[in-house]
Amino acid sequence: MILPHEHVFLDLRTWESPGHGVAEAAGVVRRVALEILRARTAGVTAMVEPTTLGVGRRADVLKAASEATGMPLVAPTGVYREPWIPP
Fold first, then answer.
1. What sign does the CA torsion over 85, 17, 27, 3 have?
2. CB count, 10 Å around CB of 55?
3. Residues ≥6 apart with Cβ < 8 Å to 30
4. Which of 17, 5, 19 is CA-nearest to residue 52?
């Protein structure tokens, strides 16, 4: 079973906002690991994380969460839509 649209890390402030997309990977993992592990226990074998460039995509955070939980996380490419598209 694959969950096709699960945000692990997201920042809906626009890209020029101070602190946009800023977080410590370890802190994010602490907040999301339990839910990801619950999904694994329920039989989920992978998650697709749809957060793109412009709304806080952080491959390092996804990698850390995946390694901490053993859950494969598929990272997106591309960008979101205006006004979240950086120059």
1. negative
2. 23
3. none
4. 5
Locate the domains of the chain by residue range. 2-74
Angle at 52 between CA 48 and CA 55, to 5 degrees: 125
Amino acid making up residue 13 = R
pTM: 0.91
Question: b vs e for 10-38, b when ≥16 Cβ sit within 10 Å of the residue's Cβ?
Answer: ebeeebeeeebbeeebeebbeebbeebee
Q: How many CB atoms lie within 10 A of CB 61?
A: 25
Q: pLDDT of 8-52, one tens digit each?
A: 999 999 989 999 999 999 999 999 999 999 999 999 999 999 999
Residue 24's identity, in one-letter code, is: E
Cα dist from 87 to 17, 26, 27, whole Å: 14, 29, 29
